Amino acid sequence: MTRAPTKATIILAVLLPSLFVSIGSARAEKWVDIAVSSEANTHAINIDSITFLNDLVKFWKRIILKKPEHLPDGTTYDRTLTLNYVDCTERKAGFTRLILYKKEKAVGNDVYPLDLKQPAPESITARVIDEVCEVAHFRKAVLSGDMDLP
Question: Taking every annotated instance into account, which residue ranges of this chain make up the domain Surface-adhesin protein E-like (predicted)?
Answer without folding.
Answer: 31-133
